[in-house]
UniProtKB/TrEMBL annotation:
The lineage of its organism: Bacteria, Pseudomonadati, Pseudomonadota, Betaproteobacteria, Rhodocyclales. SUPFAM superfamilies: EreA/ChaN-like. It comes from the Bacteria. This is Haem-binding uptake Tiki superfamily ChaN domain-containing protein. It comes from Azoarcus taiwanensis. Residues 62-273 form the Haem-binding uptake Tiki superfamily ChaN domain.
Length: 319
């Protein structure tokens, strides 16, 4: 079972949850737990790619393994430019060895798919794309954090897939619960697979620390259940979007850009993907100096990338 989440990770997760739910008032190796780093410490990770804990991974071998997957899930902190530069480097490297690729994006709800299609076809200016995709309503982060990725997809005609749902839907499930929402209002999302005990514990910790307020007893239990169900809906929507892109073109590699909280320890989207029959998947996470080394444990991800001096060391994967 993963270690107790750090305060920094909890706050990051809560911020992401709040944006969507509107509820705030947000290659495995055995290894041990490490201490919280001082500023600028990268938990002993070597430069470049490694398994959680520090064992160096060779770029070519990692790239070959990734190219054999059906889905490669790239984590992020949404507001960190270095994370998106790293994602773009990985995307470029994978496209070079596996051109049949699609890009699945947490940023967009399903209803804006026509705007993504038109963008990839070169039919929209950047301003038109942001307007027609309703960016400033559905995501609200600075679009320049992501635009180089979107430009690359357009230039290479990489299909972009909107895999999220409307925030109004996740808020509704957060208030009423999954079963209270009529099927025709679920945007086509099926019933999520039950969460693991560890994921339930993690979400419960977030809820109890920051969302409960003065709710007690049965009322609190109902709100906690609805809160977890809203998160599962969110995870399931993204997993189904990724799965749909895979089924649409057998042999395609789908690269997904998703907040790291949905990916860590395989609990969120990876768990739902496995329930949909996608076993050939890998999760990659960027690692920053202010991350808690207590989180760097066995099973966190298939590989992590040390972002120290990123931008001066070269691409995240050499091809």
């Amino acid at each position: 079972m993963p270690t107790k989440p750090s305060k920094a990770l909890l706050l990051s997760a809560i911020t992401a949850l709040a944006l969507t739910l509107g509820v705030l008032g947000p290659f495995s190796h055995a290894l041990g737990v490490r201490s919280i780093p001082a500023a600028g410490n990268y938990c002993g990770l070597p430069a470049g790619w490694s398994v959680p804990g520090g064992t160096l991974l060779e770029d070519t071998a990692l790239l070959a393994r990734l190219s054999e997957q059906s889905a490669v899930l790239l984590g992020e902190r949404h507001d960190r430019l270095e994370h998106h530069r790293w994602q773009l480097d990985v995307l470029r490297a994978l496209h070079a060895v596996h051109p049949d690729i699609a890009l699945a994006l947490e940023m967009f709800p399903r209803r804006v798919q026509p705007a993504l299609d038109a963008w990839v076809e070169g039919e929209l200016s950047e301003a038109e794309f942001l307007a027609q995709s309703d960016w400033h309503k559905v995501w609200r982060f600075d679009p320049e954090l992501y635009m180089d990725i979107f430009r690359f997809a357009r230039d290479k005609r990489i299909p972009m897939r909107a895999v999220n749902v409307e925030s109004d839907l996740t808020r509704l499930v957060g208030r009423e619960g999954f079963d209270a929402v009529p099927t025709d209002e679920l945007e086509g999302v099926g019933r999520p697979a039950p969460p693991s005990a560890a994921y339930t514990d993690w979400l419960t910790t977030i809820y109890q620390m920051h969302l409960v307020g003065n709710r007690v007893g049965e009322h609190s239990e109902r709100h906690l259940r609805n809160f977890i169900e809203a998160q599962l809906l969110w995870d399931r929507s993204m997993a189904e979007g990724i799965h749909g892109a895979i089924v649409e073109s057998p042999g395609r590699l789908v690269v997904a850009l998703i907040g790291s909280g949905h990916l860590r320890h395989g609990h969120g989207v990876p768990h739902q993907l496995a329930d949909l029959g996608v076993s050939a998947q890998a999760t990659l996470l960027p690692w920053d100096a202010d991350f808690d080394c207590n989180e760097l444990v066995d099973g966190l991800a298939d590989a992590v990338y040390n972002l120290r001096d990123y931008g001066t060391r070269g691409p995240a994967l050499d091809v």
